[in-house]
Amino acid sequence: MSDKESYELLGFDNVLLPVGDLGEAVGFYERAGFAVGFRFDEAGIALLKVGGETPGILLRVEDGLGHRTPLWPSPRLWLEVPDARAAARELAAAGIPPLDEVFSVATGWTVEIADPWGAIQEVKRALITRRF
User: Fold this and answer.
1) pTM to 2 decimals?
2) What is d(CA 10, CA 15) in angstroms, rounded to the nearest whole number?
3) For the chain, what percent of residues have pLDDT higher than 70?
4) What backbone phi and psi angles, to 5 degrees, belong to 95?
5) Which residues touch 102 (CB under 8 Å, ≥6 apart)?
6) Sign of CA dihedral 104, 107, 109, 112
7) What are 86-99's pLDDT values in tens digits?
């Protein structure tokens, strides 16, 4: 194997999000529409499924991490949905208010939410491709 091949990016394995409390985090993300792939409380981790993809969002407990407002700017995880405006209404009804009003971008409509530890997700109707 050449050096070039050994560093070739093949895709995502998982996206890791630090959380302060696994039970609270799993509850938040379930209300946001995620299915739990597995949960291993002893290790302080849970994997959330994202559509039919094998990789997912890995929640991992970090000691001492408390609730915080999202930092600006901060990394964002873009997730594809059929209708971001409908998703915003459903998220709000589930107790997850958007950070701002739904807004239009070049690829469609977008709504941003943040978990209690400040991780931001953009839920959008992507018209071109799936993105991270």
Assistant:
1) 0.83
2) 14
3) 90
4) 85, 20
5) 84, 85, 88, 109, 110, 111
6) negative
7) 999 999 999 999 99
- Return d(Cα 96, Cα 98) in angstroms, integer: 7
Query: Residue type at 79?
Result: L
Q: What is the mean pLDDT of residues 65-94?
A: 88
DSSP-assigned states of every residue in 74-121: --EEEEE-S-HHHHHHHHHHTT---SS--EEETTEEEEEEE-TTS-EE
List, in order, residues 6 or more apart from 32 with CB less than 8 Å away. Answer: 91, 94, 96, 113, 121
52: exposed, middle or buried (C-beta count within 10 Å: 0-12, 13-18, 19+)? exposed
Instruction: Give the chain's mean pLDDT.
Output: 85
The amino acid present at 4, given as its one-letter code, is: K
Distance CA 101, CA 95 (A): 15
Report yes or no: 55 and 13 within 8 Å, Cβ to Cβ. Answer: yes
DSSP state of 33: T
Cα gap 22→52, rounded to integer Å: 23
